[in-house]
Amino acid sequence: MWFRRSCAALIGIYQRFISPYKGFRCAHAALHGGTSCSIEVQQLILRHGLRVAWPHIRQRFAACDRAARHCHDSDKEHPKGCRQRARERCAPEIFWR
């Protein structure tokens, strides 16, 4: 359980000190609503542990990348903040490919 909490604490540090400079919301949350990837990943790790959560984390980061590409490539109207998030990925490709 200490490892789960340590991972969650590191994500909390990211949320507090880095995320505000990125705009608080990832492309997935901007396009679809709901929680950001950092909150989702934090909850997954606390609930299931990193080993079990890893495939779900990769799926979420891949979905966020698809959302970013959709926001960037589409001419349609998008929810507030979607276009700004289009250039930002939640994680490097190595995490979700």
Defining traits:
97 residues; mainly alpha; 6 helices; 0% strand; globular
Characterise this structure.
This protein is mainly alpha-helical and 97 residues long. The chain has one domain (2-95). It is 68% helix and 0% strand. It has helices at 2-17, 19-22, 27-32, 37-48, 50-73, 82-85. α1 runs antiparallel to α4 (37-48). The mean pLDDT is 83.
Q: Topology, please?
A:
Layout: H1 2-17, H2 19-22, H3 27-32, H4 37-48, H5 50-73, H6 82-85
Structural class: mainly alpha
- Average pLDDT works out at 83
SSE ordering: HHHHHH
- Helical residue percent band: 55-70%
The best one-word shape is globular
Number of domains: 1
Work out the number of β strands.
0
Largest sheet: none
Poorly predicted runs are none
Radius of gyration: 13 Å
Q: In percent terms, what proportion of residues is strand?
A: under 5%
Number of helices, counting only DSSP H or I runs of 4 residues or more: 6
Terminus-to-terminus distance:
28 Å
Briefly, what is this?
The chain is mostly helical and 97 residues long.
